[in-house]
Amino acid sequence: MSAMPEFPRPPFAAQKQLVPGSSARMDPVPDYGEETYRGSGRLQDKVAVITGADSGIGRAVALAYAREGADVLAAYFCEDDDARETRRLVESAGQRCVLFAGDIASAKVCRNLIGTAVEHFGRIDILVNNAAHQMSFESLEEITDEEWERTFAVNISAMFYLTKAAVPHMGPGSAIINTASVNADAPNPHLLAYATTKGAIQNFTGGLAQLLADKGIRANTVAPGPVWTPLIPSTMPQEKVRHFGEQYPMKRPAQPCELAPVYVMLATDEASYVSGATIAVTGGKPVI
Question: What percentage of the chain has pLDDT greater than the value 90?
Answer without folding.
Answer: 91
